[in-house]
Design a protein that fits this description.
- The complex is a heterodimer.
- Chain A is α/β, with parallel strands linked by helices.
- Chain A has eleven helices and eight strands.
- Chain A has two domains: 120 residues, Glutathione S-transferase Yfyf (Class Pi), Chain A, domain 2 (Up-down Bundle); 127 residues, Rossmann fold, CATH 3.40.50.11810.
- Chain A has a four-stranded parallel β-sheet. A four-stranded parallel β-sheet of chain A has the order 6-5-7-8, sandwiched between helices.
- In chain A, helix 10 links the parallel strand 7 and strand 8.
- In chain A, helix 1 packs across helix 11, helix 2 crosses helix 3 and helix 5 crosses helix 6.
- Chain B is mostly helical.
- Chain B has a single domain, classed as Alpha-helical ferredoxin (Fumarate Reductase Iron-sulfur Protein, Chain B, domain 2, Orthogonal Bundle), CATH 1.10.1060.10.
- Chain B has eight helices and no strands.
- The chains are: A alpha/beta, B mainly alpha.
- At the A-B interface, helix 9 and helix 10 of A face helix 1, helix 6, helix 7 and helix 8 of B.
- Bound molecules: iron/sulfur cluster (2 copies).
């Protein structure tokens, strides 16, 4: 099984572990991530303006590239997932956006009308491999570990566009935690924002948000947190203060559970 | 710019219809950055509807929104307040400059761990 793959800028720089462990785990589970050629940064934040066209083009190029390859487009980073999927939805549902992006890109022989399916790596585990098969492949289960899923915002919202899981009562990462042998810890802040990019505005914003999330997870008994978003991980660790919680990429846990981490 | 065009531009950019708002305050109640905002999500909706836009243009609240989509998800009337807040921000940052984030300030925020995602997101929101 092969998928087109959009890594995004962070996975080639500060979050190389998120990608490295995803790739080796994929091979062990029987699928391959094929990086699309000449991809460009998604911009990190979905351009909300209906008349913002230029900032949607890098996503459209990636979507068109996957369409040409005839494959679903996989992402690992929550932000890439969010931006690509929301832009894809714009092309599919807003005729003005569809017209304008194609009008611009025809010079590059690109024509795209929303054909590509954007999926997150976790969806392959859930819908293609299946949790039972992930479980069967586990060699080092996280038995007795209480793991808190930190979804943040970008994997879940807007729920009606992303349709990955119930945005208010998600199960995806909890099911992942169970499949690798751990015990999921449910806490109220698991789908509330970490503060995102606002360290450029006021450091106290991500600081306050992160402390709230960590304290809540710790109160509910989590040993550590799992995420798919490099910015969430950064904010939580940067502002952890007295908290003892570590924040780990889900792919690193997966590789460890599959017995692939030591070798790499 | 006259208020009537400004309102029209903001509504077009955002695709939001503020008339759908029933002022229940749920968006503001759920906003994780409520405390940092001078004007709260439901006030953006009401003030744009009333053409009272000037105070919003001059408020730092447009930079305090986290784009977390919580208000959008939880509004019982599908008003999508964050899109309206962002449209006001787009108008302010739509000038030739100077912008809210001066690239010369970026290095002072960096450390060895900061992901590229933080920087590109800040550029998208604070420097258009
Ligand atoms: S939640 Fe929706 S309906 Fe309620 S005040 Fe906010 S925008 Fe208006
Ligand atoms: S998107 Fe902005 S206004 Fe809406 S809840 Fe999040 S921080 Fe508050």
């Amino acid at each position: 099984m092969n998928y087109s793959y959009f890594p995004g800028c962070t996975l080639k720089n500060k979050a190389t572990d998120l990608e490295k462990y995803a790739r080796i785990s994929a091979e062990a589970l029987g699928f391959t991530l094929e990086e699309i050629p000449d991809w460009q940064c998604c911009g990190g934040e979905y351009p909300m303006g209906k008349d913002e066209i230029a900032s949607k083009l890098s996503s459209v190029r990636a979507l068109a590239s996957a369409k040409d390859a005839g494959k679903d487009l996989v992402t690992l980073c929550s932000a890439c997932y969010n931006v690509l999927k929301q832009v894809n939805n714009d092309v599919q549902t807003d005729e003005t956006v569809d017209f304008k992006v194609n009008n611009y890109l025809k010079e590059d022989d690109i024509e795209y009308h929303g054909e590509t399916k954007v999926i997150h790596y976790l969806e392959i585990l859930r819908d293609v491999i299946g949790w039972d098969n992930v479980k069967k492949a586990v060699k080092n289960p996280f038995t007795g570990k209480k793991i808190g899923a930190y979804y943040g915002c970008l994997l879940l919202r807007p729920g009606k566009v992303l349709q990955l899981d119930d945005p208010e009562n998600p199960q995806l990462l909890e099911d992942f935690i169970k499949a690798i042998g751990g015990t999921p810890v449910i806490y109220a802040q698991r789908n509330e924002c970490c503060g995102a990019y606002t360290m450029f505005e006021d450091n106290s914003i991500p600081e306050n948000r992160s402390k709230k999330i960590l304290a809540n997870a710790e109160d509910m008994g989590a040993d550590f947190l799992v995420t798919s978003c490099p910015l969430c991980r950064y904010n939580l660790l940067k502002n952890k203060g007295e908290s003892k919680l570590d924040v780990v990429y889900f792919t690193e846990l997966l590789a460890e559970a599959l017995g692939l981490k030591e070798a790499n | 710019m006259e208020n009537k065009y400004l309102k029209e531009i903001i509504l077009q950019k955002s695709g939001v219809n503020p008339k759908k708002c029933m002022v229940c305050g749920k968006c503001s109640g759920t906003c994780p950055n409520y405390d940092s905002m001078e004007y709260h999500p439901h006030q953006f909706v009401q003030m744009v509807e009333n053409g009272d836009i000037e105070p919003l243009l001059n408020s730092k609240s447009i930079y305090a929104c986290l784009s977390c989509f919580a208000c959008l998800e939880r509004c019982p009337r599908q008003v999508e307040p964050t899109k309206l807040i962002d449209a006001v921000r787009q108008v302010v940052e739509g000038t030739r400059g100077p912008h809210h984030l001066d690239p010369n300030q970026v290095p002072s925020h960096l450390d060895d761990d900061m992901p590229q995602q933080a920087i590109v997101s800040a550029f998208r929101k604070y420097k258009k």
